[in-house]
Amino acid sequence: MMVNLKTRQLASFLVFTYLIQLVVKSINSKGLLGEDAEIGPRSE
Questions:
Q1: Record's superkingdom (predicted)?
Q2: Is the pLDDT of residue 33 over 60?
Q3: Is 30 in contact with 37 (CB distance < 8 Å)?
Q4: Could you give the CA distance from residue 21 to residue 36 in angstroms, rounded to a whole number?
Q5: Sign of the CA dihedral 8, 13, 16, 17?
């Protein structure tokens, strides 16, 4: 089942690039990290 694996890899890759774009946008809008910029996943 190589197709299933490739589809999963592609999906995770798209999600990853989407998250990167969100992070870059938020950093740019805050003018290089405002005080309450939350970086990284929250552990709760």
A1: Bacteria
A2: no
A3: yes
A4: 19
A5: negative
**Token pair recorded at residue 43:** 């552990």
Q: Is 36 helix (H, G, I), strand (E, B) or coil?
A: coil
* pTM above threshold 0.90: no
- Distance, in Å, from the CA atom of 22 to the CA atom of 35, rounded to the nearest integer, reads 18
When the pLDDT of each residue in the chain is averaged and rounded to a whole number, the result is 78
The residue type found at 27 is: I
Structure tokens at 21: 């774009």
Read off the amino acid at residue 19: L
> Roughly how many angstroms between the first and final C-alpha of the chain, as a whole number?
36
32 three-state secondary structure: coil
